[in-house]
TrEMBL record:
Residues 308-362, 620-655 are annotated as: Disordered. Residues 63-299 form the DUF222 domain. InterPro entries: DUF222, HNH_nuc. It holds the Pfam family DUF222. Residues 308-354, 631-655 have a biased composition (Low complexity). It comes from the Bacteria. It comes from Geodermatophilus normandii. This is DUF222 domain-containing protein. Signal peptide: none annotated.
Amino acid sequence: MLDAPASTPPGVGWASRPLGEVQAADREISRQTARRYRAVAAFAATRPASADRAQGEPGAMSAERWARRSAVLRPVSEWATQELAVALSLSAEAAQALLERSLTLVHRLPATLDALEAGVLHAGHVWPLLDRVAPIADDALRTRLETDLLAWAAGRVTTPAQLGDKTRREVLKHDARAAADRLARAVRERGVSARPDRVEGTSVVSALLTTPEAAALVAALGAYADALPADPDDIRTRGQRMADCLLDLVLRPGESDLPPVQVVLSVVAPLGALLGGDAPCEIDGQVVPAETVRALLAALTGHPLITPADTATADTAPTDTAPTSTAPTSTAPTSTAPTSTAPTSTAPTDAAPAGSHGLGPIEVPVRPAVPVDPEFARWWTATVRRVLTEELAGGQPPLVDAAELQARWAVDEEPPETGPPPQDGPLPDGASDQWWARADRAVDAAGDAVLAAQQALGRARRLVATAARADAADEAAWANSPAGRVTTAPDALTALAAATDHARAALTGLLAATGGGGLADRPRLVLTDALTGALLTLTDLPALRRAIAQGGGLGPPGRADGYRPGAALDRHVRTRDRRCRFPGCRRRVPRGGDLDHAVPWPAGPTTAANLAGYCTGHHRGKHQAPGWRHTLTPDGTLTVTTPTGLTAVTEPPPY
């Protein structure tokens, strides 16, 4: 029997009649989804892994499969997946994914599960948190990020894509080195694959690439499609023309007469990222690690940028703590210009993760070989195997397996060849003494083995403690290094002060090399509010110098005389909005159009306070959909009111 439906209202309020029923049903679906996750986790608790055969026993899960098993599944019996698959008519893969997802939400993201049960989130919102927040090893950091993200998503129209973008940005900001490790592993898995589509006779080709490579590829195909000669008989869509261009370029390169095209990528890099810090960046609106942008810019411009390793080893690196902030209310992260060609390679080089330590094999003291009674040997082998499995590794494969122990301690599985087996009846003279001597030696060997196991266990614990101390020392050293101080700097001026002379020189060289060089446009400086991250103005070095020399303020470009904004005003509004401002939409604002006057021109001026960026569909809807109202305030806050009276508010995304 179902409980009463969830009553938490949506962020935009309750609608009336059918739409209100849809909202209520959606919240009830979320609540029941959360109950399902809790029930699956409760079922898993009744199927402990201790009931399975231990590692190494005949019929147990192989060590390779066990090593691939996620941490949340290891305490659960491997047969729970099959039981769940039968109960729910799922494949084994789907059942295991549901089991892992349920345990992760219950044990690692409990606040997310509570929000889902309350109807604040729907099932689609759970994925970004599962993919990016749940893997964070630090419990305190994971809980803090989860709380902050849920608070950010509450009370507003937030799609899973928007939450995913926010989640990527926050995880990169607070767990950058782990994110870099994941990126390095993913780069090594790049490839191309094909799978059948839902429609017979069609297939989907997937290519796993780095973000700049993928953005450049799609942009190039779009440019090729747009460059095709106009033909009134050509009824293909732009996407179909892009697919045909891809086939011509790859399968018939010598037969294609497609003209060369330029690829334009918009790269947004905070100043700290260019100085060697870990601040997240953007490539065509996609959040990427700082190292990706540094590699891309170095490849495109031929000008090497500072890296965290450089900041750690530079001779001029300061050794004192970061200076306190003396910045004004605006910071100056750098938005580099759109680039003109696709990167040749942005894959980071493989390197050991920061803070990792190679631990050598654990040496077990070798005892002199002594003959051991065969029956005792078999019992002792099983006992050692169990002890090493349960105590040494906490349920993981043993650090030293039984075969190695047998070799070291001369524990033979077969009886030694000492003559014919004993017969029933009295033992010959002296035989009893020999048997007791062997048993006595076996007990001594058992004691030696216990001592060796205890010594191995003690050394393993000491190594773990040493590794933990070394990792903490590495973390403290990084936090006090120039790269660490740049990453944690509250504003751009503090980041510049914390950087090394070498890093500042590298940044100056980049700006000088690209100021009027081979890029499609020169780099621009994005001046933002230090507290809110809101855009204050978009400028470049010459304009910044003029403003300082003349003592004038920096702000948005002035009012345009006509309907269309000038180049500076157009660039400012697009930099402020970046994506369509309609609630929940993440489409890019098309280049060269769809900046809308909130108050129609000429009654409303052509200014930043009266312009907002929309995708083509939502731009049309603003003017044509009956009963909708769009209200824009001077700071760029957009309020959209539906025909049924629901209101949703969006703000320009902060930097």
